[in-house]
Amino acid sequence: MPPRIALTSGEPAGIGPxxxxxxxxxxxxxxxxxxxxQMLGERARALGMKVELRPYxxxxxxxxxxxxxxxxxxxxxxxxxxxxxARNAPYVVHLLERACDGALDGEFAAIVTxxxxxxxxxxxAIPFTGHTEFLADRTRAxxxxxxxxxASLRVAxxxxxxxxxxxxxxxxxxxxxxxxxxxxxxxxxxxxxxQPRIAVCGLNPHAGESGHLxxxxxxxxxxxxxxxxxxxxxxxxxxxADTVFVPHVLADFDVVLAMYHDQGLPVIKHAGFxxxxxxTLGLPILRTSVDHGTALDLAGSGRADPxxxxxxxxxxxxxxxxAA
Length: 324
Prior knowledge:
Elements: E1 4-8, H1 16-26, E2 30-35, H2 37-46, E3 52-55, E4 67-72, H3 89-104, E5 110-113, H4 118-123, H5 131-139, E6 145-149, E7 154-157, H6 167-170, H7 173-191, E8 197-201, H8 216-230, E9 234-239, H9 247-250, E10 255-258, H10 261-272, E11 277-281, E12 287-290, H11 307-323
Parallel strand pairs: 1-2, 1-5, 2-4, 3-4, 5-12, 7-10, 8-9, 8-10
Antiparallel strand pairs: 6-7, 6-11, 11-12
Helix pairs in contact: 1-11, 3-5, 7-8
C-alpha cells in the first residue's frame, strides 16, 4: 500500500488551495486533503481545474487514482481569494492540529503543509510563530530543525524565526550540539545517508576573521563542532558563509548548517525556488512543506506555480516509503 499523506490546505485566501489542487492532479499518490470541501470545489472551478473531490473516511478509505480525497472542515466565514479574514484563523490552526494528531497515531505516514499567514493568525489572538515551532509544540519535540532541500542542496538552520538582533545570544554550544545530532540522525533515518557530512557556517563575515570581526566562532561554534567530532560526527567549520556555497566546496558535504534564517535560505531559494521543499527535522513525525508564502496577489488567478508543492508531496512519499 502506498503511504497515506495528509495535506493541509493552509490559508484559504492564499494560494494554498490552488497549489494543493494543482499538485494533486500532477502526482498519483494516496493524498488526503484537509480543508473546506466547498471552498476547494469553488476554487477548482474558478481555476478551470477538473478535479474529482470525494469524501474521506478513515475506515473505508482507499486510494482511487485521478481523485482527491477531502476531509471536510467547514470554514467559519466564506473565503475570498486574496482577502484575509482573521475569523478563519482557528480553522487554519485546526487543520494543522488534525494532520499532526493523525500522523502521531499512525493514520498518516507524513504531513505536507500549504502556506499559512502568520499575521492573520496572530491578529486572531492566536500565538503563532510558524509551522516549525507549532508542530514541535504539538508533538512535544524539544528541538525542531528547519531544513530546506532541493535535489542537489540541503540547508538547515540553527535558529529560525528570530529578529537578527537576538541571533547571537540564541546560539549556544548546547543548541548547536542538539541541532547537529538531529541532522546526523534524521539524514540517516529519512535519507539513508550514513554518517552525513555537515558543513557549519560561521556567524560573522569571514567566520569572524580570527576574532577580529566577532568572537562567536571562537567562543561557541568551534567548541560545539569539536564536541560533536569527538562523538564521531562528520562536522566541518566554522566556514565563511559567503564561500561555503561555492559548488566545489558543497561537493564535500551533504548539508550546510546556517546560523540564521537569511544566511542560508536566500541561497537555496535562488537555487531552486520552484522545487525546494521545507522539511522539519527533530519531530517524531515526517513533515514537508512548500518553501513559499501565501502569495495573496496570486490566489485564484491561475498563476501560482505548484512546483514546490508537488516537490513537497513527492519528497514526503519517498521518505515515508523508505522509512516504512
